[in-house]
Amino acid sequence: MIMTKKIFGIDLGGTSIKLAVVSIEGEIIDKWSVPTDTKEDGQHIIPDLILAVQEKMLENNWTNEDILGIGMGSPGFVNREKGTVAGAYNLAWVEEQPVADLIRSHFNADWPILIENDANVAALGEQWKGAGDHADNVVLVTLGTGVGGGVIVNDQLVVGQGAAGEIGHMFSKDGGRKCTCGQHGCLETVASASGIVWTAGELAYTMDDTGSTIQGRIFNGDPVTSEDIFRAAEAGDRFAEAVVDETMGHLGRALGQVAAVTNPEYILIGGGVANAGQYLLDKVTDYFHNSVYPGVGQTTSIRLATLGNDAGVYGAASLVMKNI
Asked: Residues 121, 124, 130, 132: is their CA dihedral positive or negative?
């Protein structure tokens, strides 16, 4: 009976592989993780993943008939039709990897094995079980080491020819610093955790000495994180406030452009930087409303994402649910 079947939701990351067993109602029955072994061009990753699934099935006496399917989020370029991943450099996968075929042949199962870009999968997770509240039109932007994004329109992921949703590579700043993609001035270079720190380093030497502890630490060559900057800004540090205004201004205006094209019910902000919470949300929302087309601004709300590290496994499981 389909109601009793389980879904494996898998989130492939450069440090760990997160796995969950999810019911079709969207409840996590079990979750765990295994280290990502990137040695020898990442050739241990899929065998380790298969072993983790196999052990969980044996532990619970599940057969192939008890499983509805496997959904997976992965970095890199995903070929959805073939079930392959290439160019996932933090997994050491440069060449195309036949992920779905390897899993399917091991279990000799006719399950759907569905793979999607990890940022898109996180967006699906937030839409299904998080701050997206089942809305048909949702944008997720993740602020971490980089800036990721996933766009859902009319309850469908926007994938284009494979690389849609790259919000972090929207142009943001004339004469901006070089991005890892090779271009200059991408949003990622100012609004990511590293971009916020870079901006602080630049502003420290263009502003007068404000007596700021953050500015002083930069002058002394001491390490500073984006979390340090937000905490100081919220406490009234004038230099830190200037850094937050500069970086969140770029983000708010970029989200205004995204909203003008997609007009979502919700734009969700996740990732490590979003731990700054309501202070960050208020800053971004102010800049968003100062730049967005008014009709769009009145119908789009900006929220903090709520699922944290579970967004990926929920979203991966939802790939299977949408498939059936």
From this structure: positive
